[in-house]
Amino acid sequence: METVVLVYSDDRSVRSDVRDALGTTLGGENLVIREAATQAAVLMELDGGDIDCCVFDAEATPAGGMGLCKQIHDEYEACPPVVLLIARAADSWLAAWSLAEAVQSFPVDPLTFPKVVEDLVFVEVDEVAEAA
């Protein structure tokens, strides 16, 4: 089995930092990280339907991660959970508006960040299994 995480940022170094913090496994499964630098690329990846979790950079331009998070929650019935990376704690209320399932300060902490993503991925999987 494998877990697929989509990382969105227009900044290559942000995507690299997230990749480094997450490593190569998550919850005992192989971790596949897909990267997107544009809003269109994110939507194309989501249309593929195999994304387990998204990590969006709230500071991305021209499409910010918060607006994109809100958009996918509104437009995709089976929207994967989203972790928003924020630069300022004051942005937490905007993250709540965007319907993000989790918020993390940037730069990401490699000791705590993987657990945040893991909890979202495997809680979602457990809830789906229980509902079936």
Structural features, described:
The chain has one domain: Rossmann fold. Helix content is 43%, strand content 23%. The protein contains 5 helices and 6 strands. It has helices at residues 12-22, 39-48, 65-75, 92-97, 113-131, and strands at residues 2-8, 25-26, 29-36, 53-57, 82-86, 102-105. A 6-stranded mixed β-sheet has the order 2-3-1-4-5-6, with helices on both faces. The longest helix has 19 residues, at 113-131. The model is unreliable at 124-132 (pLDDT under 50).
Brief account:
It contains five helices and six strands; from the N terminus they run E-H-E-E-H-E-H-E-H-E-H. It has 132 residues and is α/β, with parallel strands linked by helices. The relative contact order is 0.19.
CATH topology: Rossmann fold
Which stretches are poorly predicted, pLDDT < 50 over at least 5 residues?
124-132
Please summarize the sheet with the most strands: 6 strands, mixed
Report Rg.
14 Å
Termini distance? 20 Å
Helix content: 40-55%
Strand content: 15-25%
For the record, the CATH architecture stands as 3-Layer(aba) Sandwich
User: How many helices does DSSP assign?
Assistant: 5
CATH superfamily annotation: Response regulator
Please give the domain count. 1
Instruction: State the strand order across the main sheet.
Output: 2-3-1-4-5-6
Question: Structural class of the secondary elements?
Answer: alpha/beta
Q: What's the quaternary structure here?
A: single chain
